[in-house]
Design brief:
With about 140 residues, the chain is an alpha+beta fold. The protein contains five helices and five strands; from the N terminus they run βαβββαααβα. The chain has a five-stranded mixed sheet. The N and C termini lie far apart (about 100 Å).
Length: about 140
């Protein structure tokens, strides 16, 4: 049954609690029986019902168990037609991209403060030794 092809329009007709399809990575899943069991609540499922839920599914970071459950709900694949919405491009990594552009400035500031402290300590020690030799 998983080799059946659905168009986006076909999927869009299945958007109620009693008849709920979602598209994730161009695969069609019948989430009707799962909607009440979904840990995030039925409202989350109904918000993406009859639509491409790829971005919403990946943004949450579902567990391996959730992905296994998803495979049990597979009913077909999506046949994309011109004009159908596409999910946003996925990043190559699951980890968010770190913004390191300003990190170097913070490290440099600490380095300057540390070196300045060392110079001040050295100057203090020098002055103390000079004062001791004069006395």
């Amino acid at each position: 049954m998983a080799d059946k092809e659905f168009t986006y329009q076909d999927v869009a007709e299945h958007n109620t609690k009693k008849d709920l399809f979602v598209v994730i990575h161009d695969k069609i899943y019948d989430a009707t029986k799962f909607v009440d069991e979904h840990p995030g609540g039925e409202e989350v499922m109904l918000d993406v019902g009859g639509q491409d839920a790829t971005e919403a599914f990946e943004d949450v970071g579902h567990s391996d168990e959730a992905r296994e459950t998803l495979e049990q709900l597979l009913v077909g694949t999506l046949k994309r037609n011109p004009g159908d919405p596409h999910p946003k491009a996925q990043q190559s990594s699951l980890a968010p991209v770190a913004n390191t552009s300003s990190a170097g400035m913070g490290t440099a500031l600490y380095a300057v403060i540390f070196v300045g402290g060392l110079v001040a300590f050295g100057a203090y020690q020098y002055l103390q030794s000079q004062q001791a030799t004069e006395a």
